[in-house]
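Lab channel / #folding
Pinned by the channel admin:
"Please post every new chain as: sequence first, then the structure tokens as a reply. Keep commentary short and put observations after the output so the thread stays searchable."

First post following the new format, from NK:
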Amino acid sequence: MKNKSYFESFRHAFDGIKQVVKEERNMKIHITMTVLVVLCAVLFNLTVCEKAIVISLCFITMAFELLNSAIESAVDISSPVFNMFAKRAKDISAGAVLLISIGSAIAGLIIFVPYGIELLEKIIERI
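Reply from TO:
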């Protein structure tokens, strides 16, 4: 059934996000990492472009986690007993989350490590 209004569409979307946050351990990990990344972005005074990149990657990763949860739920409904094809679908969607997480972590390291090295050099100079 179609949503009656844009407000109803947004409400359903937020309901889905709340459900995944409440039920999925990995989403809690993604949210924790996003908070840490944003704090580090502020602490290290990243450029606007760097902030945009790290925040976008955090939200892309969380979006992949939402899609993974949706795929797992759909597979569980369609195949309540063990099925190799169901396992394959769930493993592939989990693999997509893993790949985007690894890529995001690598991009984060490329952006944050030089700032960390600079901070360490300043601390060493003061000693």
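NK: The longest helix spans residues 84-126.
TO: also worth noting, The CA atoms of residues 76 and 82 lie 9 Å apart.
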